[in-house]
Amino acid sequence: MYVYNAQTLQRTDSVNAVVTSPHHIEFSSLHDYLYIVGRTTPGQIAKFGLTDHVLAGSVTHPGTLFPTAIALGPTGQ
Questions:
Q1: What pLDDT score was predicted for residue 19?
Q2: What is the DSSP string of 2-69?
Q3: What pLDDT score was predicted for residue 72?
Q4: Is 18 exposed, middle or buried (0-12, 13-18, 19+ CB in 10 A)?
Q5: Helix (H) or strand (E) holding 72
Q6: What CA–CA distance (Å, rounded) separates 32 from 16?
Q7: What is the pLDDT at residue 69?
Q8: pTM metric for this prediction
Q9: Up-side HSE of residue 16: CA atoms within 13 Å toward CB?
Q10: Residue 40: burial class (beta carbons within 10 Å; 0-12, 13-18, 19+)
Q11: pLDDT the model gives residue 73
């Protein structure tokens, strides 16, 4: 996954998304984390720090659930 500067549209970094076929990105309400949803592995979601692009955690649902997007509430739930 590539990281771009929003003002200049120049690529500034790349991140190993650790999810298969990244499909959807959601930002936390405080803009300190981003969540990436994978499209081909059931329930695969990874969480990254927005300032350092370091993987903070990931989860894969043990069933056949294939989310295509997620939504976060104001408290991060």
A1: 85
A2: EEE-TTT--EEEE----SSSEEEEEE-TTSSEEEEEESSSTT-EEEEETTT--EEEEE--SSS---S-
A3: 87
A4: middle
A5: none
A6: 18
A7: 79
A8: 0.79
A9: 5
A10: exposed
A11: 84
Residue 72 tokens read as: 């976060």
Name the token pair of 29.
Answer: 């309400």
Under-70 pLDDT residues of the chain: 65
Q: Is residue 11 within 8 Å of residue 2, measured between CB atoms?
A: yes
**Placement of tokens 């059931």 in the chain:** 42
The pair of three-digit structure tokens given for residue 40, joined into one six-digit string: 């081909």
Amino acid at 33: Y
Q: Token pair 């003002």 is at which residue?
A: 7
